[in-house]
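During the reporting period the student researcher (J.K.) took over the structure-prediction task from the postdoctoral fellow and processed the backlog of single-chain submissions. One of the processed entries is reproduced below for the supervisory committee.
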Amino acid sequence: MISIPHKAKQFSVFIIKLLIVTAAFYFIWQQLAQNDKLDWHKFVIILQEKQSVLGILFLLSFSFVNRYLEILKWQNLVSFFKPITIGESTKQVLGALTAGIFTPNGLGEYAGKALYFEKLKTKKIIFLNLICNGIQMILTVLFGTIGLFILGYWKWGLAIIGISCFLVFASFLSKNIKIKGYSIQKLLYKINEIPKPIHRKNILLGTLRYLVFSHQYYFLFLAFDVDLPYLTMMASIATVYFLASSLPSFQFLDFAVKGSMAVFFFGKLGVNEWIVVFISTLMWFLNVVLPVIIGSYYVLKFKPKWS
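J.K. obtained the following structure tokens:
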């Protein structure tokens, strides 16, 4: 076997990290600069009319709490086999977010987090990340279905319940069927290996994160003078996030997918299209772009175990 010199390995890793960060910023710029639905002139006028340092800090605080809860979730789950600090969890969550920005539904985050651990722990880290994201998806489906009923989309809501019941029933019948050595029964066994207090904390943090994220969306609508009943607004937000999360998408296109869904549902409520698009873009900027900028630092500082 040909041995690659240590310095050559270091240089290769540096180039890969630089490419990841450069590509991340390029795609972010492309989405912000080339979206013809974004009327920046209108946006600047509104900012000048409503400029408020406290208002901006208030909205930014939601982004901080949202990501901090995700960091706590990851720290909680990893404690199953290894205690890590908030700093280590922050590095892993934000670094993996940046590395996974180009992958469908953030799948690259799984590999990104695994790189911070020994190779023997890779399967366990991927599994824990599945649990971490899984509870968020379950909550999105739950609140989204409730939102559909509140908005009067009864057929859609009943269809979701029917599909969910069918999947649960089908999973029960096929729990012993193995595919490449894996089965639903084995998955349930692995889930039950994790102590219940960790599961309870994961559900609590996931619920809090969902509430923080959705209310940031709500307050942005208020900032743009959208006057709708609280329940109608929250039901629409829940429905948009549920349906958008059901579609395969890349992190850097996240606002476009959610924005198109938001335009459909909020358009029926009489909300101006450009306001909906702008709010969706701001949500993407506050909750994806800003963390990716910070995560870029961790990507550049990342050192493989062999270095």
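The committee noted the following: The mean pLDDT is 80.
J.K. will present the remaining backlog at the next meeting.
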